[in-house]
Specification:
The structure is a single chain. The protein is an alpha/beta fold and about 325 residues long. It is about 40% helix and about 20% strand. The protein has eleven helices and 14 strands. Strands 3-2-1-4-5-6-11 form a seven-stranded parallel sheet, sandwiched between helices. A three-stranded mixed sheet has the order 12-9-14. Strands 7-10 form a two-stranded parallel sheet. Helix 9 crosses helix 11. The structure holds UDP-4-deoxy-4-formamido-beta-L-arabinopyranose (WQD). The site of UDP-4-deoxy-4-formamido-beta-L-arabinopyranose has 19 residues, from helix 7 and strand 8. The site of UDP-4-deoxy-4-formamido-beta-L-arabinopyranose (WQD) has 19 residues, from helix 7 and strand 8.
Amino acid sequence: MAILVTGGAGYIGSHTVVELLNTGKEVVIIDDFSNSKQEVLNAIREITKKDFKFYEINYLNREALEKVFEENKIEAVMNFAGFKAVGESIKKPIEYYTNNVSGALVLLDTMRKYGVKTFVFSSSATVYGDPEKIPITEECKTGETTNPYGTSKLFIEQILKDLYVSDNSWNICILRYFNPVGAHESGLIGEEPQGIPNNLMPYVVRVAAGTLKELSVFGNDYNTPDGTGVRDYIHVVDLAKGHIKALEKLEREQKGLYIYNLGTGNGYSVLDMVKAFEKTTGKSVAYKITERRQGDIATCYADPTKAKQELGWEAKLGIEEMCRDSWNYIERHK
Ligand code: WQD
């Protein structure tokens, strides 16, 4: 029996595949390389010394997806396929809703056809919109997302809830990620955004590496200790391990719908991150304070208690490891 990982060559997908293989799971990956590279597959093999099956397909291609289910005994699906650039989603809503929402629907429909009902879904803290309280618990209200990317996650969460109501033999875990950063300690896999990065850490490492001139810090007049935005940065390897714990939970329960925040519970400001990066790597990061970025909120961090209690998972890696591993990856891939 195998775990089907959609988007398994991507940033979070590839790190999760490594953890799955390390725990002895059989893995089948599908990816269309729309935002990932073929080399990642060999890097996964190099890290784990294990192999997996791979299909280069888009999950909207129902016929090709059915072939994957025909040719393999799939026990569960982890869905990392999807577009994730917030700014781009505002310009391309049809593409985002088609790929993320329609893709998820084709995937779920195919799972249903083949009697596979165990599903782990990559959601995002973005579904909380401007959070009603900090730290954010899973009970906080969701909605009022500010871009099609976030709304696509919200829609898929709703589809999963409705699906479970219609047939409670489904076994679903929704994981709401906070801000994933870092890379595998080998430096062989990591985050490779196309073009100029939107997210903080990929931008910081490129300034340190000299490929970008300076970081723009988007506002220093927020109601936070130093005025810059506060987020819950989580090491991607911790995040990947959270998926293994989620899968184990689903294996124990056999049915249900579960929702967990995957964050550290610690909030760091933009300037905290810049200072931690400089201290850890010895590189300097030039920055200037600019206007606030539209749609940003002041503070966002998780209450990760539920995941600790019910999954037995908590983030172990700190801000130094996040900075060290992000830098290590870039150094190897300059
Ligand atoms: C972090 C902080 C910025 C860039 C987004 C998505 C979310 C999730 C993760 C997943 C903020 C500041 C950033 C820069 C800056 N997506 N910043 N200069 O906005 O918390 O979350 O990414 O796929 O859904 O909304 O993350 O890394 O963009 O920003 O000052 O050049 O860094 O204002 O305070 P964000 P981020």
